[in-house]
Amino acid sequence: MADTKIKQAKRPKKLNFDKWGYVFIAPFFVVFTVFSLIPLISTFSNSFYENYRVGLQTIGPNFVGFANYKAVFQSDILRYIKNTFVLWMAGFIPQIVIALLLSIWFTSNELKIKCQQLFKTVIYMPNLIMASAFAMLFFTLFSDNGPVNSILLKFNMIDAENPIRFLSSELWTRGLVATMNFLMWYGNTTILLMAGIMGIDSSIFEAARIDGANPVQTFFKITLPLLMPIFIYVLITSLIGGIQMFDVPQILTNGEGNPNRTSMTLIMYLNKHLANKNYGMAGAVSVLTFALTSVFSFTVYNMTMSKYKEQTGKR
After folding, report:
1. With a threshold of 0.70, does the pTM exceed it?
2. Phi, psi (5° rounding) for residue 58?
3. Judging by beta carbons within 10 Å of its beta carbon (0-12, 13-18, 19+), is residue 263 exposed, middle or buried?
4. Strand positions, DSSP E, the chain
């Protein structure tokens, strides 16, 4: 009996690690609450109040209900939403096409492209450059007296008195914004798609090759359906980034969305209210932007995932 008590006394206590999981995830919830949840709630709250500044005088906060939302819909916000989607689509379509081609070439066992690591580094480098620096570069290059007009003048392609006013043309301005977005993000998209393709079992491609499938058939029947989860991720993140487009058109058009506000995006419109200290209107635009992002993201996800499940037979 005494020996049994001694053995029980010497037996170490069993440590319970169940509660340590809460300790490890606590920093995330603290950071999320302070920097995301509280500002989100504050934004929703501000959208129902009249709160702005006129000179040195502050008006409000006065509760006005949905008056700010009514004022937003009476403005040109629908036009700015259209501008945002046009600029995003103009950059995303060539981005995804070029990224798909590059990812297939770099992962192909038949082509065996040399110096792949160098190419991957080069195509990803524009993503490391700040968007503001990129925009300033293009603003300098394509200004009325910039290097591009100087080169065209040197080759007698334009008249010295009539340079090409790139930033005064709707087509050129939108094209430059789309080009910058394409250059900054196609490398990142290529890396993601390459990772997805390399995750596909190579035996599937070998079986298709043995069955006589050509590269085009292999791409549309095997690669693209199996790549759909990564493709959906790229599409949704790009869509969210497109709706939040701000820095490139803001700098390129000096914050005015010129010419004639055809390059004014939704976040640029939001920034104008913040610059004018109109926090009520800014809150309403922010809530509408949040709702727009959520609706489009869930719609795109459901549409693409349903198609993916049909192709793969998954539930």
Report:
1. yes
2. -100, 125
3. buried
4. 49-54, 57-63
